[in-house]
Design a protein that fits this description.
It is a single chain. The protein is an alpha/beta fold. Helices cover about 35% and strands about 25% of the residues. The protein has 2 domains: about 100 residues, Beta-Lactamase (2-Layer Sandwich); about 240 residues, 3-Layer(aba) Sandwich (Rossmann fold). It has a 7-stranded mixed β-sheet with strand order 9-8-10-11-7-12-13, sandwiched between helices. A 6-stranded antiparallel β-sheet has the order 3-2-1-6-5-4, covered by helices on one side. Helix 7 packs parallel to helix 8 and helix 8 packs across helix 10. The protein is globular, with a radius of gyration of 21 Å.
């Protein structure tokens, strides 16, 4: 048993989502979104480095010595998997571990809209799950892939850095490919995937032009592609994809995206005040013919209005999700106001003006 495993056991026992080990500080856990220091001595560089390198693959340790940061996956059988990131900072080595539950929660268990599970039944196209870091994008995608695994008879390939949720093949055949271990890059794996008879491709992170282009190309050639982006809402997601391309390519990409994009699920996490835990507020855009026309014509600023009137298609605005949480008394009015895009809707719920609350 590695020395660091005791901290992972503490994560599990406290329900922490992240573990921060930083030279010059005691260990820190993120619990329900808040950073909480562990009653432990301050970690010094050499001691922490020895502790971290005990679980670090040899090839990754070499890359870390050369570059100053690495990502990899670590697993404690019977407990959980962890996404690890090592990096150098002023006081020495540091690491952050995100706990990935061994059990994949279903869409129903996560309390997500039934529309989300229906995305697993699409035959082709591009589906994006977006949101800030730590908003639960991977958990939502895992639930969608799990549903596909149960109800379809297809070939699923996931491309991740590192592999997070481990799916056991059920009705589908699932292959997990880890960037840096099984393939050189997301782009290389996507190019290879098109020759591997896939029905569904999951791209862990679409973070550069080539990966985004290949994902759109795969979706336009008859595959169902799931991916993630760090964008706040549906309309900004479309703009982000188009803006990453050179100006002379944007018209063509806009036309292709109008035909291939099927849905955007923009996710934001909220701390619950009624029970321990968090809940996910969703903005869901289903790409109807009307939405396709807006994308093609460069009128993405009209997409929020379409979402507001598209409830019969399963669409929902973030504000509607937040309002539902407020009515159920799941979240505090202050957090609702802080994370809403249309903040005016939530002013009446605040006990004090935003300026006094520090939310302005």
């Amino acid at each position: 048993m590695a020395k660091i495993d005791a901290f992972f056991k503490l994560m599990y026992d406290t329900g922490a989502s992240d573990l921060h080990l930083i030279s010059g500080n005691p260990p820190i856990l993120r619990i329900r979104g808040d950073m909480e220091r562990v009653k432990y001595k301050v970690l010094e560089h050499q001691e922490l480095k020895a502790m971290l390198f005990e679980i670090c693959p040899e090839d990754k340790a070499k890359i870390f010595e050369e570059t100053g940061d690495i990502d990899f996956g670590y697993e404690i059988p019977g407990l959980a998997r962890y996404r690890a990131n090592f990096f150098m900072q002023k006081n020495g080595i540091a690491a952050v571990f995100r706990q990935i539950p061994s059990k994949i929660m279903t869409v129903e268990e996560l309390g997500l809209s039934p529309t989300v599970s229906r995305l697993a039944l699409l035959k082709k196209g591009l589906v994006l799950v977006t949101g800030p870091t730590g908003s639960g994008k991977s958990t939502t995608l895992a639930a969608i892939v799990d549903h596909a695994n149960k109800v379809r008879r297809d070939n699923i390939i996931t491309i991740e850095d590192p592999v997070e949720f481990m799916h056991q093949s059920q009705n589908c055949v699932i292959s997990h490919r880890e960037v840096g271990r099984d393939t050189r890059s997301f782009a290389a794996a996507l190019r290879g995937a098109l020759r591997e008879d896939p029905d569904i491709i999951l791209v862990g992170e679409m973070r550069d032009l080539e990966t985004i282009f290949l994902a759109i190309e795969a979706a336009s050639t008859g595959h169902l592609v799931f991916g993630t982006l760090h964008t706040q809402n549906a309309s900004k997601t479309v703009d982000r994809i188009i803006d990453i391309f050179p100006a002379n390519q944007q018209a063509q990409i806009r036309a292709t995206l109008a035909d291939t994009l099927k849905a955007v699920v923009a996710q934001t996490l909220f701390k619950r005040i009624d029970v321990k835990g968090r809940c996910a507020g969703l903005e869901i855009l289903m790409v109807t013919p009307a939405v396709s026309n807006l994308i093609r014509e460069g009128k993405t600023f009209q997409i929020p209005g379409v979402i507001q009137t598209g409830k019969k298609y399963g669409m929902v605005t973030l504000e509607d999700s937040i309002m539902e949480f407020l009515k159920k008394k799941w979240i505090a009015p202050e957090e609702a106001y802080d994370k809403a895009v249309d903040k005016a809707k939530f002013l009446p719920f605040l006990s004090k003006p935003p300026e006094e609350l520090g939310l302005a």
